[in-house]
Amino acid sequence: MIEPKQRPATVTVAFWLQLGAAAALMVIVALIVVDSIYYAGLIDRAAELTNAEPAEVSSERASNVAGAAVGCAVAVVLAVWSVATAVPFGRGSNVGRVLACVGAGLQLLCCVGSTGAGSLMFLFVASLPEDPALAEDEVWPADSAFYEKLYELDESGTMAWLAPVVPLAAVTVFLLSIAVGVLLLVPPSNRYFRTEPVPPAYVPYPYGYAVPVYYAYPPPQYGAPPAPPKREVDHPSPDVDPPC
Q: Could you list the residue ranges that cross the membrane (predicted)?
């Protein structure tokens, strides 16, 4: 009988950290939804106070909904991936471990990629030469009363504390993903996920004496019996007189 392998502490810690990362991702989803609803209210308030054009208001509302939808979709997919892979590798599945490492890499890519993409976009825009024609035909003029009022309400609103919470949760997911990937690749975890060779089947040792083996031989071939030897009989000679 094969005894089950004991799960090392590294795999146990990675399992709970993976679930913690999934919980942090769901917190991010909740914060994005709350922030989107709150920001939609600010858009309506700014539009009422400034008598803004409908095009500006519609554009800002669409941007708010699109950003929230993309952020929630990415976070939900990563959270489901984390939970779906944590259970298999917690039970010793090497495939689950590989998928968990892939999910950790995706989380790192999302966290680093979003920051890096924003930085690259800023550097790209800053490196472009100024175009006077573009400045005159701006889609959102700098003197737009709607956007000025919207940014003012956003900075001084009651939900201003929410702005640093989402990045903090993203950093938490980033650190948890690194920890899970490292814990699943250390030597104790490698030995746990290594497939052991199957031992040969048990054959009971025979007790008692071995059964005798009889070999078959062809029956002997018997021929005709030999003829008996001839006996010589003494006959009296005719010239000799018989005894009286």
A: 12-34, 65-87, 99-125, 161-186
